[in-house]
């Protein structure tokens, strides 16, 4: 039996995001905790007890509460929250050494400062999981947390050691009464920590790796070394041949699996094409014998989670992770494994892009393009004319800013249609020069450019006339070309490869860059740039004003600005010519220059 889960939406309703309230009169610490948590939670900050009472309401899920605060202490806030019967989990986060007075306080966990990012994040994660436990089980874990923190002190230093003994008795009584449920929930919490440890370990491995191969091997080794898992492998899927092959593995005989187990191929195909996680509750005997051929018994079940390795809309393959026992913990942490798949994809994309940037050779792919699903094709088929990509730059929000020239089409009509298109976040006219208009578009999807950029390719040519076009893209020589082509054709079926060729890439030295720039700059532009630089004009606050620099050069301030802008443009142009961005090309530039 298998369970299929869809990936989390990129943008969720705010009410679905857990709310964490951080309360501390140490504003620096409170702000730091907010920074640690804000990527995953809706974080509120209160710099004191009174502010906390104003900020807390029924929407708050977790409170991190300092004890020692002026006017309204953390203990007072805790008592008020209990009286208001708010259903939230509370962790005391304080430098106050714990003593037996805390036994009767109704909190869920106790953190002693100084705290780390890991302390804070793991506490919030665990308390959110605990909030779904039955009341008596929640109470057990809260009392156990109190017992643990008190046992960190010498018994002789405690105000009332007998209270600790009574607490221990209560904990053991609850444990015996709800043994099965507590054991199940403890395993759940242990698995939560294992999964998060794995995520952090993989992130560290990705940072240290420099190639795709190193990343994939490091990920599989990190999974296999984690005690909760039996092993892992990363599968490549060849869409044209409907074939599966292993790229890296640890603890698993992946080559034997891909050759002998017929059920693996449809599983990988489904994960790669649907971009969804699959959880298999119990793998078949055939699957298990192939994956772990040295085993002598097949009595205990083995479950597996299969995760798409994604970067934006590009799928690099599928990650298999095996574990002993039922799949319930995999199913509860699907979102964490989705994040793991995206982390691996981000690392691979960065490595592929870096290799393309610094490589001496590259592979150039040429495509015929007539797919209506693409923004360029759709607009030219609707309005006529020619659209030509002049430059692009990936944005931090997963969109792409691109500069496009249009010929043979009325510019205002094109602007109107582009603005209405769901793939276009914003559009504007940059310049108009005779029959040619330069546009700037920020696009998100429904554009073949986004797919190529997501793979880390450099798009050299993208030109479409009346719905028929050409795309020429460059990738690193050892890039997974089949994965790129599959990814493009999955979204845009009416695009086909017509040529593949290896090309030499010129690697420019510092001297060559300087020579090219000097050939572009006039003497006056060079003098203006150098004088402005050495006089502190580019500093903030400025070391010299524009008027002061102009006076030293014996020119007027308007002339200074004109030369400065022209020189800056040529400097930036020369830089971006070497990094793949055309900076809007000549149509975006000023049409007049003064020597």
TrEMBL record:
Domain Response regulatory: 19-128
Residues carrying 4-aspartylphosphate: 66
InterPro entries: BAT_GAF/HTH-assoc, CheY-like_superfamily, GAF, GAF-like_dom_sf, HalX_domain, HTH_bacterioopsin, Sig_transdc_resp-reg_receiver, WH-like_DNA-bd_sf
Keyword terms of this UniProt record: Kinase, Phosphoprotein, Transcription, Transcription regulation, Transferase
GO MF, any single term: kinase activity
Protein name: Bacterio-opsin activator domain-containing protein
Species annotation: Halopelagius fulvigenes
Classification of source organism: Archaea, Methanobacteriati, Methanobacteriota, Stenosarchaea group, Halobacteria
């Amino acid at each position: 039996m298998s369970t299929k889960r869809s990936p989390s939406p990129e943008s969720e309703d705010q009410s679905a995001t857990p709310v964490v309230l951080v309360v501390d009169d140490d504003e620096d610490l409170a702000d730091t905790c907010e920074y640690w948590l804000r990527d995953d939670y809706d974080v509120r900050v209160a710099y004191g007890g009174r502010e906390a009472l104003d900020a807390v309401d029924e929407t708050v899920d977790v409170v991190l509460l300092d004890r020692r605060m002026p006017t309204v202490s953390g203990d007072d806030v805790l008592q008020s929250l209990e009286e208001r019967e708010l259903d939230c989990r509370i962790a005391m986060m304080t430098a106050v050494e714990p003593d037996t007075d805390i036994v009767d306080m109704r909190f869920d966990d106790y953190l002693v400062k100084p705290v780390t990012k890991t302390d804070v994040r793991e506490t919030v994660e665990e308390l959110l999981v605990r909030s779904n436990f039955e009341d008596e089980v929640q109470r057990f874990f809260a009392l156990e947390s109190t017992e643990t923190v008190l046992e960190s002190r010498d018994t002789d230093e405690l105000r009332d050691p007998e209270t600790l003994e009574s607490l221990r008795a209560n904990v053991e009584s609850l444990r015996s009464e709800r043994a099965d449920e507590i054991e199940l929930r403890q395993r759940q919490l242990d698995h939560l920590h294992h999964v998060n440890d794995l995520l952090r370990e993989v992130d560290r491995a990705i940072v240290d790796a420099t190639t795709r191969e190193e990343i994939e091997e490091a990920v599989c080794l990190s999974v296999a070394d984690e005690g909760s898992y039996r092993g892992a492998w990363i599968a490549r899927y060849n869409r044209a041949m409907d074939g599966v092959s292993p790229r890296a593995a640890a603890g698993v005989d992946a080559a034997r699996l891909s050759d002998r187990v017929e059920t693996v191929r449809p599983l990988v195909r489904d994960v790669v094409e649907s971009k969804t996680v699959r959880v298999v509750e119990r793998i078949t005997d055939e699957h298990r014998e192939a994956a772990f051929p040295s085993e002598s018994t097949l009595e205990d079940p083995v479950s597996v989670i299969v995760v798409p390795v994604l970067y934006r809309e590009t799928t690099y393959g599928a990650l298999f992770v095996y574990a002993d026992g039922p799949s319930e913990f995999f199913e509860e942490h699907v979102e964490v494994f989705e994040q793991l798949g995206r982390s691996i994809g981000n690392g691979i994309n960065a490595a592929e892009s870096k290799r393309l940037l610094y490589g001496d050779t590259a592979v150039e792919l040429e495509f015929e393009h007539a797919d209506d699903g693409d923004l360029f094709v759709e607009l030219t088929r609707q309005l006529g004319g020619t659209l030509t990509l002049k430059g692009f730059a990936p944005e931090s929000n997963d969109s792409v800013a691109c500069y496009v020239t249009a010929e043979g089409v009325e510019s205002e009509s094109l602007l109107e249609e582009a603005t209405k298109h769901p793939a276009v976040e914003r559009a504007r006219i940059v310049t108009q020069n005779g029959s040619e208009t330069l546009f700037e578009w920020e696009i998100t999807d429904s554009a073949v450019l986004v797919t190529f950029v997501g793979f880390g390719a450099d798009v050299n040519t993208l030109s479409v006339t009346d719905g028929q076009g050409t795309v020429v893209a460059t990738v690193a020589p050892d890039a997974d070309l089949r994965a790129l082509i599959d990814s493009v054709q999955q979204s845009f079926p009416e695009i086909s490869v017509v040529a593949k060729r290896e090309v030499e890439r010129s690697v420019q030295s510092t001297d060559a860059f300087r020579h090219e720039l000097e050939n572009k700059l006039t003497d006056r532009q060079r003098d203006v740039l150098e004088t402005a630089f050495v006089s502190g004009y580019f500093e903030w606050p400025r070391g010299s004003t524009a008027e002061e620099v102009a006076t030293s050069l014996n020119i007027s301030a308007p002339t200074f600005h004109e030369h400065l802008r022209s020189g800056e443009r040529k400097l930036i142009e020369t830089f971006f010519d070497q990094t793949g961005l055309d900076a809007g090309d000549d149509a975006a530039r000023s049409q007049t220059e003064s020597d």
